[in-house]
Structures are given as structure tokens and as C-alpha cells.
Amino acid sequence: MRPAGLADEGLLEKQTMQDLAILNRDWLLIGRQVRTAFDKLVALLAIDANGMVIIQGVSRPSP
User: Fold this and answer.
1) Backbone angles phi, psi at 49, to 5 degrees
2) What's the confidence (pLDDT) of residue 40?
3) What are the two backbone dihedrals, phi and then psi, of residue 4, each rounded to the nearest 5 degrees?
């Protein structure tokens, strides 16, 4: 089998936002495309049932 690529990372992010349970059903979404103090974007910011902050980035690997 060959690895499959993702043509549109925005589509993956959109699908994940529509159903966060894809990643973890116990996460509560706090924000999407959150800008950090380092002027970077975090694709998804969530919190779990224990109060732990989850930072998820969606990006394409470098060529």
C-alpha cells in the first residue's frame, strides 16, 4: 500500500469541527484557528474532562 495524501487540509479541519468525536468524544471545543502569543495559528483548541488543554494543528508536511 502507498500512503495517501490529503489534497485539502481545510476539509479535514472542517470535518473535525463538525464532529469533534472523530478525535475524542470527551473533548470540549474552545476555539478554532486561535492565534497564539507567538503569532502562530492553532487549528483546534479544546479541553478534556480532566481540564487538560488540547492543541491540535492541521498542516501539510514539508516537501
Assistant:
1) -65, -20
2) 82
3) -95, 140
| List of the chain residues with pLDDT < 50 | none
Q: Show Cβ contacts of residue 42 under 8 Å, excluding neighbours closer than 6 positions.
A: 31, 33, 34, 35, 36, 55, 56, 57
* Residue 46 CB contacts under 8 Å (≥ 6 apart), including other chains: 20, 27, 28, 29, 30, 53, 54, 56
Q: 50 to each of 17, 42, 53, how far by Cα in Å?
A: 21, 21, 9
**Cα–Cα distance measured from residue 25 to residue 62, given in angstroms and rounded to the nearest whole number:** 30
Query: Which sign, positive or negative, has the C-alpha torsion 17, 23, 24, 25?
Result: positive
Per domain, the residue ranges of the chain are 26-58
